[in-house]
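Recall from the previous lesson that a structure prediction takes nothing but the amino acid sequence as input. Here we apply that procedure to 3-keto-5-aminohexanoate cleavage protein from Bradyrhizobium iriomotense. The sequence below is the only information supplied.
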Amino acid sequence: MVSKVTARKVIITCAVTGAIHTPSMSPALPVTPQEIADAAVDAAEAGAAIVHLHARNPETGQPDQSPEAFAPFLKIIKQRSNAVINLTTGGAPTMTVDERVRPAAVYKPEVASLNMGSMNFGFFGMLNRFKTFKHEWERKHVENKDIVFRNTFQDIEFVLKTLSETGTRFEFECYDTAHLYNLQYFLDQGLVKPPLFVQTVFGLQGGIGPHPEDVLHMKRTAERLFGDKFIWSVLGAGRHQLPIAAMAAAMGGNIRVGLEDSLWAAPGRMASSNAEQVRLARKIIEGLGLEVATSDEAREMLHLKGGDTLNV
Ligand code: KMH
Ligand code: ZN
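The prediction returns the following tokens.
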């Protein structure tokens, strides 16, 4: 008699718009509050347990980190889905940490992203593919070679302390092994509480590369530093999104997709929506005999406070 094996539950996070890609790059990129809300609800219906959210100026598509810019779509998403809301504290890499933390401070989401170290951000590689832009700001944004995404120890502590009373837990964005050691420091200081949701980011210019050896090295380092205190997820940028998702899912990882991080559905084919990427992630997970975690299962795994606590 074969003993019953329960399939591992895999958390899919969908990051629907972000602050890296610009409207001219893809008609699928959500810009207006209605588009962001619809993308998040559709992604949740396709299997995303968590939706990671940025806001944009509805006319120009420029990143907008004002709390007011988040309100319209947060209300809709809360009404129309049970998805875990994950608000960015990253905003756009050129913003100050005071600006960046405000939406999460106001709305007290179950999850907020937290970037675990300073680094260069270079989006200029996209100029090889995207040559014409509707809005003046887009080209300047993409060709900027002078971006330092500032996340000093003081900045990280500021976000942790600003959000500590809200019950918000974190998606720790780790773009290189140094960021894992930084997270270990905050764990040792008692400023972060397990289970640590570690989002390892691959293939973004300025962070660790997308090679399988890079993925293994981040996994191995996180295991050595955090043992059973962390839950591993992967974010592959651009064309690396699904291959890295497949590799990690086969090794116990969780998956982040979404047009914030990649505009692609397959080599040379752009995604028609965030939900399409979620469906592709679901196929990988179920193809391995694993199951897609529901939002409530993700809440249990990550010790979250419950969706009705969103202050909107
Ligand atoms: N853009 C992703 C690579 C944040 O919003 O805080 C990481 C991210 C950062 O989502
Ligand atoms: Zn983000």
